[in-house]
Amino acid sequence: MKKALYLVLALLLLVVGALVSLTFLVSADEIKQTLISQVKQKTGRDLQIDGAVAWSFYPSVGVSIEQVRLLNPSGFPDKATLVVGRGRIGVALMPLFSQQIHIDQLELDQPQIHLYQLDDGHTNIDDFLNRFSRPAVSSPPAVTDGEQGQVGSGYQFKVAGILVRDGTLSFTKVATQQTYSLQHLHVKTGLLTPNQPLDIELSTNFLLDSLQGHLATQARLQPSQSGQDWTAKAWTLDLLLQPDAATRLQLNSRADVALSREGAQQTVTLSPWVWSAQLTSQTLQGQWQNQGRLMATWGNTDPQICFDEWQLSGTQDGKAIPPTLASIQAQGNWRYDSRQRQLSLHDGRGQLGELKWQGDLDAVLAPISKILFSLSIPAINLDWFGITTDKSPATPSSSAAAKEQEPDLRGLRQLNLEGRADIGRLTGSRLALIDVKLAIKLQDGLLDITDFSAGVYQGVVAMTGQLDARTVPARLQLVPRIRAIQLQPLLREWTGKEPVSGAATAQGKLSMLGLLPKNIRSSVAGDLNVVIHDGAVNGINLAAMLRDAKAAIKGQTSSGAPRKTDFSALTADIRLGQGKATSTNIAMMSPLLRVKGSGYTHLVKETLDFHFDVAVVATSKGQGGQDLSDLHHVTIPLRVSGGWSNPDYALDMQSLFKQDLQQRIQKQLPQKLPGKLGSLFN
């Protein structure tokens, strides 16, 4: 037991003696001069060591240095590329006795790294990048392990890796003096050997204005034999962004990276590139994944970016996200040309919740951007987006209506847009359109609806028009073309009432100032020609009213027939303006009656004021079983007044009584007068 103890003590004394003798065999000043000489030989840079250089023995044998500066190359600011207040060089012990300096690791505490870029794109570290991408020399001397060289003092020199703790990195564009910086930077590299793989790890915390976060990345860099190309196998990037205390965005990226050079042009390719993102905030939470191929090119010209074969999927949830849109899938080929500032999407297709789409996009990004698009969507349900309409909406109060303001669309002058969209079916709580086709063109604040058509209520509505967004309120012009739309289901869905039924056809030209409903009603102007076939006016039975009036004249009771007037055709030319819809040639035809009239409805006050002349042109016992032969060829005035919700129908009984009396006199007086005197009344 004592022998073992003596052996351990002897070994400790041997190690201590070796360390003590080391300080005498290899002077710190000699190491200092070796470092300065090697940096100059390997990089052409000047290394200044203004502080002390001393041996340290914990946690391993090494040399500590202070106040180190690696100067910039000529042509760059005087500020050094690297400033180190304190550093440590870990040295392998045994090679020192053979005049070999093997640096196990170069440690830098709180270094400051300053990167600069000139107008021509060159940086103050290009010499280092070129150093490690220089083609291998086919002839010796060759080194089998580490970066090794012969020092003038007889020592061999090798660096196994670099470790940076809590550093600062800044990047400055010399022309604009724009600077970006990273704090708490940590870097670790593997063996530094020209034309050999280099393992590198980097992490940093950063704070940019109110945005804080953390970044960590690692890769194995491999230069090609030509020295012009690089690859980074298994490159990883983990990024955390926290713009505020309640928002957190985590990004994770994985890719194989290839960097190629051709003259001044450089191209980086990420293939395959897989990334994922997780977002947590007060209004939105989500997880997304994507994969594809990314290629970026830069050099003497602005960069170009291409993103091919992208496949995106994910889920999102939040206050503004309806449950029906909680998932997303998309794929296609993206292109971005920075020289032309062009963005394009070809063969794009995907699904957002239940919404499926496919199409192409071409955009030129500029102060006034231009976008061309073509989009096809099988179906859209407005309920998917939380867009619903109450069938019985409450009438807004006057104070609320007064607070409504016209939308300011003048910003559309900064966008030129042209394209078309085809939608198989567009539905909502009170909407059902099929075969929707829309073509628009927006230029200089003028939005032209060059084509719109859709099937609705068993008919077709088509339209062209123009929205002038250059002023507030905006001006709107429409040229509608409506064919055979069934009015009864339309009015039932949108008003809750069925005042008129039939197949409506209309065409005309309208203009209006403003987009709020109240402003549309007060400003709409233009002409409409309306024809309604095979319908009915509900709420009034003109034939029954005439029969009841006839019965009242004779002292009989009313018929009690249904309040409905059928017609084969109802036509009118309508003039809109000054808040009114006016017509002077309303005509309604039925087998029994002919109606002509004129008047107006006030679109703002929602009142009616129409006068009609109702004529019995035939007799019928089909409607109520009553005969109107006594009123044949009699024209009876009818006035429609009151409000939209409760119109008032009133026959001119005095005129009816007068005409009825005239008919009776004409029939009976010739019979009462003798001879030729009676014939005067025939």
Overview of the molecule:
The structure is a single chain. By secondary structure, this protein is α+β, with helices and mostly antiparallel strands. It has a 34-stranded mixed β-sheet that branches. The longest helix is centred in the N-terminal third of the chain and has 24 residues, at 2-25. It is rod-shaped, with a radius of gyration of 45 Å. Mean pLDDT is 80; it is low at 1-25, 136-153, 391-399 and 622-626.
Task: Write a brief structural summary.
The chain is α+β, with helices and mostly antiparallel strands. The model is unreliable at 1-25, 136-153, 391-399 and 622-626 (pLDDT under 50).
Question: Which oligomerization state do the chains in this entry correspond to?
Answer: single chain
Task: Work out the radius of gyration.
Answer: 45 Å
**Low-confidence stretches at least 5 residues in length (pLDDT < 50)?**
1-25, 136-153, 391-399, 622-626
Share of residues in helices: 10-25%
Largest sheet: 34 strands, mixed
Q: State mean pLDDT (0 to 100 scale).
A: 80
Euclidean distance between termini CA atoms:
159 Å
What is the count of β-strands? 34
Structural descriptors:
682 residues; alpha+beta; 34-stranded mixed β-sheet; disordered N terminus
Please specify the SSE layout and strand pairing.
Blueprint: H1 2-25, H2 28-43, E1 47-49, E2 53-56, E3 62-70, E4 82-91, H3 93-96, E5 100-109, E6 112-117, H4 126-132, E7 149-150, E8 156-159, E9 162-173, E10 178-189, E11 198-208, E12 211-223, E13 230-244, E14 247-262, E15 265-280, E16 284-298, E17 304-318, E18 327-337, E19 342-352, E20 355-364, E21 369-381, H5 398-403, E22 415-428, E23 431-443, E24 446-456, E25 459-468, E26 475-486, H6 487-495, E27 500-513, H7 517-523, E28 525-538, H8 542-554, E29 564-577, E30 580-589, E31 593-602, E32 607-616, E33 635-643, E34 647-651, H9 653-672, H10 675-679
Parallel strand pairs: 5-8, 5-9, 6-9, 21-22
Antiparallel strand pairs: 1-3, 2-3, 3-4, 4-5, 4-6, 7-8, 9-10, 10-11, 11-12, 12-13, 13-14, 14-15, 15-16, 16-17, 17-18, 18-19, 19-20, 20-21, 22-23, 23-24, 24-25, 25-26, 26-27, 27-28, 28-29, 29-30, 30-31, 31-32, 32-33, 33-34
